[in-house]
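Thread: Newbie trying to understand structure tokens

Hi all, I'm a second-year student working on a class project, and my supervisor (Dr. K.) asked me to get a predicted structure for one chain before our next meeting. I've only ever worked with sequences, so writing a 3D structure as a token string is new to me. If someone could post the tokens and maybe explain what I'm looking at, I'd be very grateful. Here's the chain:
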Amino acid sequence: MKKLLIPLVAIFALATTLNAQDKMGKKGHHRHHQKGMMAKNLNFSEDQKKQVKTINEDYRKKVQELNKQESITVKEMRNRKAAIQKDRKTKMDGLLTADQKNKIAQAKADRKVKSEDRSAKRMDKMKANLNLSDEQVTKLKAQRSVTQAKAEKIKNNESLSREQKKGQMMSLKAEAKAQHDKILTSDQLKKKEEMRKGHADRSRAKK
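---
Reply by user tm_fold:
Sure, no problem. This is what the structure looks like when written as tokens:
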């Protein structure tokens, strides 16, 4: 079995929880709360907290030094940054206990189950509201699976910067919408747009 590495999101969770210094809006505050709960559930020892802080401080210094390098190419910059990120992931994984790794894996599995359940409910609602055929539902589910696989590949590509990942995710979203709309009829698309506008109007009315 391959050695389990702590997911990137968990690394950011630990970094943010133990070194939260940036100002956050409501959305950022919500993410910070979730990450704080994750770190709390892992039940870090004082020694682990110190190690996390040291690892993150070392990571920031390396990135800052790398950003000062004006003579290297964009590709080389990306590769070096990916190497620094990979080194931090490895060090983070090294300080976790087997129980903590299992908790992270279980939390990821639980999130996947909840996400699939929400998607199934949204699909059932869409089928009823737009009067979708069984064939359309099958095609939409297949298209969603393909999109999820592509999104996961982008997320796990350590050679990409955060900005590059964001750009590719936006392109993927646009591609998915175009494929999604091809499956629907013109009447279904019209009804879908009317529902979207109605939802937007109700949201504004509540503010």
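A couple of things are worth pointing out once you decode it. The chain has two domains: 1-112, 131-207. The radius of gyration is 21 Å. Feel free to ask follow-ups in this thread.
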